[in-house]
Design goal:
Structural class of chain C: alpha/beta
Largest sheet of chain B: 4 strands, mixed
Number of strands of chain C: 10
Oligomer: heterotrimer
CATH superfamily of chain C: P-loop containing nucleotide triphosphate hydrolases
Radius of gyration of chain B: 28 Å
Chains: A alpha/beta, B alpha/beta, C alpha/beta
Largest sheet of chain C: 6 strands, mixed
Distance between the termini of chain C: 33 Å
Order of helices and strands of chain C: EEEHEEHEHHHEHEHEEHH
Strand content of chain C: 25-35%
């Protein structure tokens, strides 16, 4: 126990003495949290919209004015020809083109229906789908208006039926992305800092030769590993704390659940990440290798965490892989406890898996640290 | 010049000798692109939902059948009470609950309308919104079936054309992004670390007292990595063509050329990092902590840049990855040539020159 | 005399290459034992087996009465080690380094405090005690390393080329420190390149290609090889 104190003291001193690192550890995460949380949104707005009006009629102008009034569309310009519009889309200047054909108004009055052509840049398939929905909504509303205006009794005796759907969004009524992203990005930042620092730690001592000096002392393997883990564990929890304050004060993210539960889970979670880091550190020879491997796992952990794209959408085999992704559980717990107020029983499956990972990874870290070659 | 050649050869040996790192450098991008190409998608698929049916009649049963027949949803649970909704959401597996009001069929016949409530777990707003839209679409199409004998008059029917990606495949959106993230991080990380490593080990001084000019020293360190990155880029492009069936509508040569430019930009950024960091540790933390999330979030890889607040749209311009993603999508999916992409290309070239210029300046200051 | 190091046919191979080939020797208590050999002769490998950070391939050895196969951690309690690569923390001060290494050898804070004071005084480090070790000249660093290796009063101290790259005056001072430690009963096991230093040792062994080719007092060695200095002895042996 006494020996542990000396190691911890030394590690803390080294962290705070590295002037080049301090801003990276203590400033960068929070700047990223502040900036990136604003950027991470799937909320489709300001769609770059343009139109080709071949009819120049009252109706065509009226329809266009509906798009101009919509908050989703940003009407860039109109084009005289389809060719010009296509070029603008190739150039990336517009993403949605509405083409109103000639005789649009005449057809509508005479034939009782008229066609419109909508061209959507669909490289981002998900956005294209949403954009299509918005275009359709505006046109449906417009249809209702003209049906009232040009009212004619329906030529059928059967009354149409209507099933209304009323969506309501729980835990995040206004579909505010920040409520969702701030806790998620915080999770990523805590994970990255602790993984990278612990991943570089032992291998760095290996490279500069001090590890050999440690290995000729009678220190126990577990003492050494725990002494190495503890400072980063404190660091991770501190970053979480500052991040939560930013989330609450600046982003106004609701914290519905029990904070103690958050901390309980996070303190186990960080152990998993540190175990992974020290394990990587032990079986690599240079800091370079350690960093490449940490980077490899970090990118996989981040992109397969369900934070940016839903896990349910992944193919089955990929979902099985995410079962081994600690970040996935952290993101889930963070959302459940913070936003929904889930209790200990609700998050028990995640807690158990995380405890299991923590035992395995730290077991591997102690095992792979060899005092003798 | 001969000296320079010898120096590059030495650097190559360094890289090739370290089998483990070489394996990591060339193997990891392959695993990542394969994994992400398949796994990263925001198409809705098999979302777990629960049903609270107060009517339990023919119509509600029909709607439930329609929903469970779609590949988007899988009905996991039937609940009986409103109070259970909270419980299932807190467990986290169920993403939405559908509530049919009582006497559904009766109301539909008598009042010609009835109500379905969709309660979505909006802790993930994007999924919640998509779920709500999809369920709505299924119910609307069912309504149309019911109304098939009613002729509606006076309507505008929009015909949508989804261009460049008619099947709305997520792969087309994400593969260029994954490619960019991998190339950017690997290249920046490799150079920044390999240069600071020499600084830390003290071997940099030995090289600097040799007749090689500093710019040659840096070039010598970077050229081997240019080759490795080109190999990586080639492998990634081949995988996206043959495994993910990405089209190359435009010129393959242009694609290669733009890749080289982007690699140089990323490597130049790595050099800049190495000039401002004293230890490998700092260099790595800057290139990993500093680059990873901004490149993923601000480049347009996952989140559409148009949707960001204006200040962030402006900030996104300084991310080289943003420009490269526009270029790749342009060449591969839109089939445009340099006449459309010269602006983005120039931005990347200007960035490379800026990074190299700044690094050289920093170097000179230090040497004096 | 008490034997504090005893090696019998101690061997270490890496694949086909035998770095240390069945060496047999012993070191007595309080002795200054010089372990000589050309670069790559196997000195450092042999030493690493004795201090318990490298597994021997075969043979047997006891250090401070403990077995190098089974009782490595007990050996570590009884030895000090100074590696040829400077291995204190550059980003800690002189005092902090001493405190840390004292701490992981299990010394109490009070003992460390008093020992630190004595050490700092002995080495004339009062002015730099709170400076980062990384900023000190190599000679000072080496002296601090040696003191740190002695901190927990080990029975044996292993020194791997302790004076490499140090100026002659500092080397002289360094050897005075070694003598002082030896006089207080500590056994010194030292490898070196400098043949003049070999003359200071009580006994020396000379390793060639993984084997100990000669082992005796410097005086006897010079006599039996009919050489004027240890340098000549070494050259005769190394050339074969």
């Amino acid at each position: 126990m006494k020996i542990l104190g000396f190691i911890i003291q030394k590690e803390f001193k080294q962290i705070f003495r590295n002037k080049g690192m301090l801003p990276i550890i203590f400033v960068m995460p929070f700047i990223q949290l502040l900036i990136l949380s604003n950027a991470a949104t799937f909320d489709i707005k300001n769609i770059k919209f343009s139109y080709i009006d071949n009819d120049h009629s009252t109706y065509s102008r009226e329809l266009i004015s509906k798009f101009e009034a919509s908050k989703y569309f940003h009407v860039i310009t109109d084009f005289p020809s389809e060719k010009k519009a296509k070029l603008a889309m190739l150039n990336g200047d517009v993403n949605v083109i509405l083409e109103i054909p000639k005789y649009f108004e005449r057809d509508l009055q005479k034939e009782k229906y008229a066609n419109l052509s909508v061209t959507i840049n669909a490289i981002d398939g998900a956005s294209a789908g949403v954009e299509n929905v918005y275009v359709n909504q505006i046109i449906q509303n417009f249809n209702k208006n003209i049906q009232v205006e040009l009212f004619q009794p329906s030529n059928s005796n059967i009354a149409s039926v209507d099933i209304l759907t009323i969506p309501s969004f729980w835990y995040n009524k206004t579909l505010n992305y920040k409520t969702y992203m701030v806790p998620g990005i915080l999770v990523l930042l805590v994970t990255m800092i602790t993984l990278f620092l612990s991943g570089m730690n032992i291998v760095r001592e290996k490279e500069i030769g001090t590890l050999e000096q440690i290995n000729v002392t009678p220190i126990k393997k577990s003492q050494f590993i725990v002494g190495k883990l503890f400072p980063f564990w404190v660091l991770g929890l501190s970053i979480l704390t500052v991040g939560l304050i930013i989330a609450k004060v600046i982003f106004n993210v609701p914290i519905v659940g029990n904070l103690m539960l958050m901390y309980l889970y996070t303190s186990i979670y960080i152990l998993v990440i540190l175990g992974i880091g020290l394990f990587i550190s032990n079986f690599t020879e240079t800091q370079q290798q350690a960093m490449f491997i940490s980077w490899f796992f970090m990118v996989i952990f981040i992109l397969m965490s369900g934070l940016f794209t839903p896990i349910e959408s992944m193919p089955n085999w990929a979902q099985r892989i995410t079962d081994f992704n600690p970040i996935k559980y952290f993101v889930e717990v963070m959302r459940m406890v913070m936003l929904k107020g889930s209790g200990f029983i609700d998050i028990l499956p995640q807690v158990l898996k995380t405890v299991l990972f923590a035992l395995i990874m730290n077991g591997l870290a102690v095992w792979s640290y060899k005092k003798t070659t | 010049m001969k000296l320079f050649y010898v120096f590059i050869k030495k650097e190559f040996y360094h890289i090739i000798r370290d089998r483990r790192s070489l394996f990591i450098l060339l193997g990891m991008p392959i695993i990542q692109i394969l994994l992400f190409g398949f796994a990263i998608t925001n198409e809705i698929n098999n979302v777990n939902i629960a049903i609270l049916d107060h009517s339990k009649d023919v119509t509600t049963q029909n709607i439930i059948n329609k929903i469970s027949a779609s590949s988007y949803f899988s009905i996991k649970q039937f609940i009986e009470r409103e109070s259970d909704i909270e419980k299932v959401f807190k467990k986290g597996k169920i993403k939405a609950v559908l509530i049919f009001e009582n006497d559904f069929s009766k109301k539909l016949l008598k009042n010609s309308h009835a109500t379905v409530q969709i309660i979505a777990d909006a802790t993930d707003p994007n999924t919640a919104n998509t779920i709500s839209n999809y369920i709505n679409a299924i119910i609307q199409s069912y309504t149309q079936e019911l109304n098939k004998d009613v002729v509606v008059s006076y309507q505008i029917i929009p015909i949508s054309h989804m261009v460049y990606n008619p099947e709305l495949k997520s792969v087309f959106m994400f593969v260029p992004g994954v490619m960019t993230v991998i190339l950017m991080l690997v290249s920046a990380m490799m150079t920044s670390i390999s240069i600071t490593r020499e600084k830390e080990l003290g071997t940099m001084e030995i090289i600097l007292v040799s007749p090689l000019k500093p710019i040659q020293v840096i070039a010598g360190k970077v050229i081997p990595y240019v080759f490795i990155s080109i190999i990586n880029a080639t492998i990634i492009i081949l995988l996206s063509l043959f495994i993910f069936k990405m089209p190359v509508q435009g010129s393959l040569i242009l694609l290669g050329f733009e890749n080289v430019i982007f690699i140089v930009t990323a490597l130049a950024f790595g050099i800049l990092i190495s000039t401002i960091s004293a230890t490998q540790q700092t260099a790595m933390m800057i290139s990993l902590m500093g680059l990873m999330l901004p490149v993923i979030i601000l480049s347009g890889f996952i989140f559409p840049i148009e949707s960001m607040p204006l200040p962030l749209q402006i900030i996104s311009n300084i991310i080289p990855a943003k420009w490269f993603i526009i270029i790749i999508k342009g060449i591969m999916l839109k089939g445009v040539g340099i006449t459309y992409l010269w602006k983005e290309t120039l931005v990347l070239i200007a960035m490379s020159l800026f990074f190299i210029g700044l690094s050289t300046k920093k170097y000179k200051i230090r040497l004096e | 005399m008490e034997k504090v190091i005893e090696a019998k046919s101690l061997t270490k191979s890496f694949g086909d290459f035998t770095a240390v080939n069945a060496i047999t020797f012993h070191v007595e208590k309080g002795e200054i034992f010089g372990f000589l050999g050309a670069n790559g002769a196997g000195k450092t490998t042999a030493m690493k087996m004795l201090i318990g950070i490298s597994n021997p391939t075969s043979g047997e050895a006891k250090v401070a009465g403990f077995d190098v196969f089974k009782q490595r951690e007990s050996i570590k309690n009884n030895i000090g080690y100074m590696s040829q690569k400077f291995a204190l923390y550059d980003d800690l001060t002189v005092k902090e380094n001493i405190t840390f290494f004292g701490g992981i050898y299990g010394l109490s804070r009070e003992v460390i405090k008093s020992k630190t004071q004595v050490l700092i005084k002995e080495l004339n480090l009062e002015e730099v005690e709170n400076q980062l070790v990384g900023s000190l000249p190599l000679g000072w660093k080496q002296k601090i390393s040696f003191s740190v290796a002695l901190l927990h009063n080990p029975k044996i101290v292993f020194l791997d080329e302790p004076t490499g790259g140090v100026d002659p005056i500092t080397r002289r001072q360094f050897w005075e420190m070694i003598y002082k430690a030896a006089n207080q009963g500590t056994t010194i096991f030292v490898t070196t390149h400098y043949m003049d230093e070999a003359e200071y040792c009580d006994r020396v062994s000379i390793m060639v290609n993984g084997k100990i080719e000669a082992l005796d007092t410097p005086k006897n060695l010079k006599n039996s090889y009919k050489a004027d200095s240890m340098n000549d002895v070494f050259l005769k042996l190394a050339r074969g």
